[in-house]
Each structure stands twice: as C-alpha cells, then as structure tokens.
Specification:
Radius of gyration: 22 Å
Protein name: GntR family transcriptional regulator
Helix content: 55-70%
Largest sheet: 3 strands, antiparallel
Structural class: mainly alpha
Number of helices: 10
Strand order of the largest sheet: 1-3-2
Order of helices and strands: HEHHEEHHHHHHH
Keywords: DNA-binding, Transcription, Transcription regulation
Number of strands: 3
Organism: Methylobacterium ajmalii
Shape: globular
Distance between the termini: 77 Å
Pfam family, one: FCD
C-alpha cells in the first residue's frame, strides 16, 4: 500500500475572502475619520453636495453614511435641514473624563509594579513613534490610543480594562479637540515621557500622579476650547 502523501500547503482550504466594504461603509469610514480628527468640527453643517465631492461617492451612500454616524452619536440629523457634526458638550464629556482619570491613574500605579520588560520596550517604541508623528494627526491619534491601552493592560485587571474599553473611544473626538490647542502636542509628549520614566523606575505613586495630571489637563483644555467657541 502506498504511503500517504505528505500534506501540502496547497491542500489547505482557501481562506474566505473578506468582502469589499460597500460604498456606504467606505463613506462612513471616511466621514468618521474627518469627525474624530476634528477636520469637520463640532457643529459644522454637513452639506450633501460638498460631501459627495469630498468623499467621491454619490448622494445615496452619503445619506446612508450620515444615518450610520447618527447612530454612533457623531452626526445630528435635522428634519428638512442639513445634518451637522454633533456638538461636543462638556456636560456629557466631563463625567467621562473623570472616569478616565480614575481608571488610568489607578492603572498606571498598578502597571509600575506589574508591567513586563517586553511591555516597557513596546511602550518606549510607541513613545519614539509618537515623537516622530508630532505633525501627523492620524498617526498620533492611533499611537496615543495604543500607549494608553498598553498601560491599562499592564495593570493586569481585566475588569478595569473592560470598563476602560467602553469609555475610551467615546472621548477620542474630545481628546483630539484638546490636542489642537497651541502647544498641546509638545506638552502631551512630555507628559507621556514622564509616565514612561515613572514606569521604568517602578514608582507607582509618581506614575499615578503623572497620569492623573495628563488626563486632567486634556479635560481642562477641552472645556476651555469649547467655552471659547468652535476653534479649529
């Protein structure tokens, strides 16, 4: 009897192809990015012909995309009037920032004791990338999210990580709004460096205090900019 033929990579079943996003999904993704980065500012009117030209799709996908983003709280639909970017309301955001201050400062203190050498190396690489992405808002936002999430994960508290995962995305637009303040990016980079230094030194109290000041400063700038008016 002939020996069985060795398995070949060609024998593996083909991986299912991921379907291409629809025009509505593409339009929603592009519009979501513009809103989260405040390239379309709070309260800005979303004129459909302008969006058609900007996003490169027809009116139907644009209208469906606006409905999707309305469900996410990013767009406000108005009867017989153009939609607008949902305004940022400090009354809604401040309690979320207070939660973030509590969660992330607590996690920074725990992470000073529990973070691994590999995680510290990764955080240092993220810090270097943040420095390089100083003027790239897309990259800076992504890397900032990674840094905060890594510190929360390093605290080794799944319950806190879950609560943080629910609250953090809701603050991304407000955080980016604060980052647009003059000098805030450089200030934020210095705060991130101080957090990394405290974690490397395994100084829990210092890590907790620096993280608390970092998030509270973002909150204060967000409130100040919204009080002054729609500065972009």
């Amino acid at each position: 009897m002939a020996a069985p033929r060795p398995a070949s990579p060609d024998d593996a079943p083909p991986r299912p192809q991921r379907p291409e996003p629809s025009l509505t999904e593409q339009a929603a993704a592009a519009l979501r990015r513009l809103i989260l980065l405040n390239l379309l500012g709070p309260g800005e009117v979303l004129n459909e012909p302008d969006l058609v030209a900007r996003l490169g799709v027809s009116r139907t996908p644009v209208r469906e995309a606006l409905k999707l983003l309305a469900g996410e709280g990013l767009v406000t639909l108005r009867r017989n009037r153009a939609a607008l970017v949902t305004p940022l309301d400090p009354a809604d955001l401040v309690p979320l920032f207070e939660l973030e201050v509590a969660l992330e400062s607590f996690c920074a203190g725990l992470a000073a004791e529990r973070i691994t050498a590999a995680e510290l190396d990764r955080l240092a690489r993220i810090q270097d990338a943040l420095e390089a992405a100083h003027d790239d808002r897309d990259a800076y936002t992504r890397l900032n999210r990674q840094a905060h999430r890594l510190i929360v994960t390093a605290a080794r508290s799944p319950a806190i990580a879950e609560a943080h995962g629910r609250a953090f995305p809701r603050l991304e637009r407000a955080r980016n709004f604060a980052l647009a303040a003059d000098g805030r990016v450089a200030e934020s980079l210095a705060e991130h460096r101080a957090i990394l230094d405290a974690l490397r030194a395994r100084e829990g109290d210092r890590a907790r205090a620096v993280m608390q000041a970092h998030v509270a400063r973002t909150q204060a700038l967000m409130v100040a900019r919204l009080t002054e008016g729609p500065v972009r």
